[in-house]
Design goal:
With about 120 residues, the protein is mainly beta. The chain contains no helices and 12 strands. It comes from Bracon brevicornis.
């Protein structure tokens, strides 16, 4: 593979053509494609991988997807405290006075939605 003379491009070892690295674009391959982040020159960008628990597919510069209410995690891939049943997170609906694990008005329930009694 001959050295690529285009700024930001890399050489494809199979074809010998100058290409932008993974998930990048622009004249100098200096921008991440939609739904990707973390540009490393000469290497490319990482895919966001946001799940249906996200409000959109574009993450921020740290890879954090914007989560819907009741979801959490970098990819919004688990239920937040007070919710159960991923991938369709539903509120626990526990009574704060009678539930064992409550803090700041949020009670934790088991994976089936049952609230542990005091």
């Amino acid at each position: 593979c001959d050295r690529c003379e285009k700024p930001g491009h890399i050489c494809d070892p199979d074809t010998g053509r100058c290409l932008c690295p993974r998930l990048t674009f622009g004249e100098h391959c200096d921008r991440c494609r939609p739904d990707s982040y973390n540009l490393i020159p000469g290497v490319g960008c990482k895919p966001c991988g946001c799940t249906p628990g996200s409000t959109r597919s574009q993450c921020d510069y740290n890879g954090q997807c914007p989560c819907r209410a009741g979801y959490e995690g970098l990819r919004c891939d688990r239920c937040a405290p007070g919710y159960y049943g991923y991938p369709k997170c539903k509120p626990c609906n526990c009574h704060t006075g009678g539930t064992l694990q409550c803090s700041y008005g949020i009670c934790h329930c088991d994976p089936s939605g049952k609230c542990p009694c005091k």
